């Protein structure tokens, strides 16, 4: 009997883990959009702000590592956040190649308005908190195995 991975069954779109992850990501981002529009943020900008709300000052490389983004993607995003008055970028006095990102007062205030986003997303997923915790843990584990 042939192994299921060797059959045409393995090539069905709906049997692809990558497609399940991709389409779920698209659906999640679509749900986030109206909530983030109210905050004046795109989804990648929201992720950057989440990281900065956790730790107010990070270097661009630390933020890129935290978000799994390269500096070519991150720099324009940070420039837009700076233009919006939410973050400040400053060069390191000892090493000008290092750029520090910190929240402005407006960036810190935005956190209060963003507090409703996670609850709204939990409601939109129609998942229980234990389900969300389990899914998050499983996806984090998958990401770590893929990165290894």
TrEMBL record:
Its main location: cytoplasm. One of its GO terms (molecular function) is DNA-binding transcription factor activity. Residues 14-148 form the HTH marR-type domain. One of its GO terms (cellular component) is cytoplasm. It comes from the Bacteria. Keywords: Cytoplasm, DNA-binding, Transcription, Transcription regulation. The keyword Cytoplasm applies. One of its GO terms (biological process) is response to stress. The keyword Hydrolase does not apply. Transmembrane segments: none annotated. It is found in: Cytoplasm. InterPro entries: ArsR-like_HTH, HTH_MarR-typ, MarR/SlyA-like, Transc_reg_Sar_Rot_HTH, WH-like_DNA-bd_sf, WH_DNA-bd_sf. Pfam families: Staph_reg_Sar_Rot. This is MarR family transcriptional regulator. The lineage of its organism: Bacteria, Pseudomonadati, Pseudomonadota, Betaproteobacteria, Burkholderiales.
